[in-house]
């Protein structure tokens, strides 16, 4: 079979219009589009039989499909790809959508993770899909570290970076911790961290613990090791993926099979450790990319689409990505400019704070 661009180039104006109207009708309400519907508002006077013949030709080319006998047509994955690449008209996000995204960034907090969390929530709310935000790995030098006891089973490790950002994570401390062992562990680390990034600190800690084993109490040593394991496991080697708006894809009137597919998708997302592949998806181009259904193995089982765009720091280096997951019948013309605008806004905010 010819690729989508070749097929589009060989289609006449009537076939293009039929194809475009079927896809737009399907994207609008998710229902198959019949020949009688198209006949009513077609640009030229044609019969329903003529429209049916054109639709049959498009079905033979693999662009349309009939979900039921004698029903209307819906676009196939190939058809959606051809529409997105060759016929989709994309403008700017409207003022209301832009305003809601902007409002999520107005906090004076220097916490980038909190900022991206709010952006993700706003993006899922605006698009009525699930949003993905891949956060950048933080490589600024560390200024201060603190351990805070919340209960015998819960503690907080707090990192203050030289650029003013603050990050904190919960973890389970070793048994028997006391206020003095908490202070000793923090003092031990703060004596080592000046000017070091998190990755540089990791390289130093194990050597220093072994060399100064007699100088640091065993309780404090255990606290240092368990507290830093939190950062080693999530904060340094891989980026963090923020997913918001799961409920948007789990509507009560959805088919049971569709709901199971969406649950499978989110289970996969939550289990996935190598989430940096979202960055790799976006790095092939500096603009928005659209993945439809099985074009991306992560979404092949759920039949979902992903609209994703990278964002860059002040040095024009890609450091993260912003995206929206939804059904294949996403309103691409509206979602693409929103994702593009959000990615540019996030890149500018992070550059301004660096």
UniProtKB/TrEMBL annotation:
GO terms for molecular function: DNA binding. InterPro entries: GAF-like_dom_sf, HrcA, HrcA_C, WH-like_DNA-bd_sf, WH_DNA-bd_sf, WHTH_transcript_rep_HrcA_IDD. GO terms for biological process: negative regulation of DNA-templated transcription. Residues 115-336 form the Heat-inducible transcription repressor HrcA C-terminal domain. Pfam families: HrcA. It comes from the Bacteria. Keywords: Repressor, Stress response, Transcription, Transcription regulation. SUPFAM superfamilies: GAF domain-like, Winged helix' DNA-binding domain. Belongs to the HrcA family. Negative regulator of class I heat shock genes (grpE-dnaK-dnaJ and groELS operons). Prevents heat-shock induction of these operons. This is Heat-inducible transcription repressor HrcA. The lineage of its organism: Bacteria, Pseudomonadati, Pseudomonadota, Alphaproteobacteria, Rhodobacterales.
């Amino acid at each position: 079979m010819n690729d989508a661009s070749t097929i589009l180039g060989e289609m006449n104006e009537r076939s293009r219009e039929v194809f475009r109207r079927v896809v737009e009708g399907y994207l609008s309400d998710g229902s198959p589009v019949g020949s009688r519907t198209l006949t009513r508002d077609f640009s030229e006077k044609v019969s329903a039989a003529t429209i049916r013949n054109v639709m049959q030709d498009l079905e033979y080319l693999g662009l349309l499909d009939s979900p039921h006998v004698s029903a209307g047509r819906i676009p196939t994955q190939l058809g959606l790809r051809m529409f997105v690449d060759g016929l989709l008209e994309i403008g700017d996000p409207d003022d209301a959508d832009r305003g809601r995204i902007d409002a999520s960034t107005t906090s004076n907090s220097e916490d980038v993770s909190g900022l991206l969390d709010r952006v993700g929530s706003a993006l899922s709310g605006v698009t009525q899909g699930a949003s993905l935000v891949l956060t950048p790995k933080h490589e600024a030098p560390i200024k201060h570290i603190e351990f805070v006891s919340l209960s015998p089973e819960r503690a907080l490790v707090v990192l203050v970076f030289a650029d003013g950002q603050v990050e904190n994570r919960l973890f389970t401390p070793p048994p028997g911790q006391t206020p003095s062992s908490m202070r000793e562990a923090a003092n031990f680390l703060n004596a080592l961290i000046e000017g070091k990034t998190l990755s540089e600190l990791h390289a130093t800690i194990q050597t220093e613990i072994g060399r100064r084993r007699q100088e640091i109490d065993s309780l404090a040593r255990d606290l240092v090791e368990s507290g830093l394991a939190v950062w080693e496991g999530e904060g340094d080697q891989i980026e963090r993926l923020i997913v918001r708006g799961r409920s948007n894809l789990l509507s009560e009137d959805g088919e049971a099979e569709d709901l199971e597919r969406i649950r499978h998708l989110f289970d996969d997302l939550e289990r996935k450790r190598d989430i940096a592949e979202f960055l790799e998806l976006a790095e092939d181009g500096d603009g928005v990319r659209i993945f439809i259904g099985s074009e991306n193995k992560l979404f092949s089982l759920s039949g979902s689409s992903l609209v994703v765009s990278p964002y860059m720091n002040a040095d024009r280096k890609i450091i993260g990505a912003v995206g929206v997951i939804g059904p294949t019948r996403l309103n691409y013309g509206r979602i693409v400019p929103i994702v593009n605008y959000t990615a540019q806004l996030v890149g500018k905010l992070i550059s301004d704070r660096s």
